[in-house]
Amino acid sequence: MDTKPLTVDGFLSTVPIPGARPCTAHFELISSPTDDPADDIVFSCTTGKSRIADGLLAEIQPGDLLHVSGTLARPGTTGETAQLTVDTLDVLAAAPARALREMVLDRYGDYVMVFDVDTDAVPVFTARGKWIGLADNPHAITTLIDIHERVTGGDA
Q1: Which of 34, 48, 145, 149 has its CA 20 to 30 A from that of 3?
Q2: What share of the chain has pLDDT > 90, as a percent?
Q3: How far apart are alpha carbons 149 and 27 in whole angstroms?
Q4: CB-based burial of residue 121 (10 Å sphere; 0-12 exposed, 13-18 middle, 19+ buried)?
């Protein structure tokens, strides 16, 4: 397998899970090199560093913006996933909502929405955590974002 060093910023996409060995963890990271969600890259990550694994399993939550460095192993065959072995991890920004047990985060360009199964209302934030507003229902999200962009000139 071909490997190379890699440093990337991205959002934690799933709840981290413990690895097969003690002091290890697996997680997925979504990196957005452009504002287009079609360009998002999902990295399958693992770490054997106990400090990082402990933080992932106890403190870090989906939606947190992370800065990770490590070694990217390219897949040996087509169809396999590239694996990023993380050696360093820093939390750049916490998820807009910390109680995500029954919620789902979704990203639309520079915006993050928090969907809750118990309500139709949808909180909308910028990817940097700035409050945009509360959409009455999922269909009103686009209107809320359009208004925000007209008022701020598209500054997310």
Answers
A1: 34
A2: 34
A3: 33
A4: middle
Categorise residue 122: left if φ over 0, alpha if ψ from -120 to 50, beta otherwise: beta
Whole-Å CA distances, 108 to 5, 7, 100, 127: 29, 23, 18, 9
Contact (Cβ atoms closer than 8 angstroms) between residue 19 and residue 53: yes
Give the model confidence (pLDDT) of 19-50 as tens digits: 888 889 999 999 887 777 778 888 899 999 99
Model confidence at 91, pLDDT cuts 50, 70, 90, reads: very high
Which two structure tokens, joined as six digits, stand for 103?
Answer: 């919620």
Which residue carries 């639309």 as its tokens?
A: 108
Statement: residue 1 has pLDDT above 80: no
Q: Tokens 């910028």, residue?
A: 126
Q: pLDDT above 70 covers what percent of the chain?
A: 90
Residues with Cβ within 8 Å of residue 152, at least 6 apart in sequence? none
Q: pTM higher than 0.85 for the full model?
A: no
